[in-house]
Write a structure and sequence with these properties.
It contains 3 helices and no strands. The chain has 114 residues and is an all-alpha fold. Helix 1 packs antiparallel against helix 2 and helix 2 crosses helix 3.
Length: 114
């Protein structure tokens, strides 16, 4: 929103500079005015684009949060309704993760030469 407001303000300043330069015959002021108008328009468009992207991302994040809440509610309901199978599933997942994360054993076994 700040970029949009700043862009509109810069466009306004550019219009005033352009008009003053035209009335006084000062081409340098007129050129500065036209440049400020163009820069203000670009800044306003950039601000609008960033606001649109932010709004879309927030909408997508809200959708994901809603889906996660639904899934967590489903898991919570399952655990309340069937606590023993839920504990068994959690234990199995824990064992599998433990086996995957422990890495390979670095122990070297040597035979006794006797």
């Amino acid at each position: 929103m700040d970029d949009q407001v700043t862009g509109v303000a810069r466009q306004g300043v550019g219009r005033v500079q352009d008009a003053v330069g035209g009335l006084t015959g000062d081409s340098a002021t007129q050129i500065k005015g036209k440049l400020n108008q163009a820069a203000g328009g670009a800044q306003r468009a950039y601000g609008k684009l960033t606001d649109d992207v932010r709004d879309r991302l927030e909408g997508a994040l809200d959708t994901v949060r809603g889906g996660m809440r639904e899934r967590l509610d489903t898991v919570e309901t399952y655990v309340k309704d069937k606590p023993l199978p839920a504990v068994a599933i959690a234990a199995a997942v824990g064992i599998v993760l433990g086996l995957l994360l422990r890495g390979r054993s670095r122990t070297v076994y040597l035979r006794d030469p006797r």
